[in-house]
Amino acid sequence: METILILSRTRPVVRSVDIATELGFKKPSVSVAMKNLREKNHITVTKEGFIYLTDSGKEIAEMIYERHELLTAWLIRLGVDEAIAAEDACRIEHDISKESFEAIKRYVSGLE
Question: All domains of the chain, ordered by start, with CATH?
Answer without folding.
Answer: 2-53 (1.10.10.10), 59-111 (1.10.60.10)
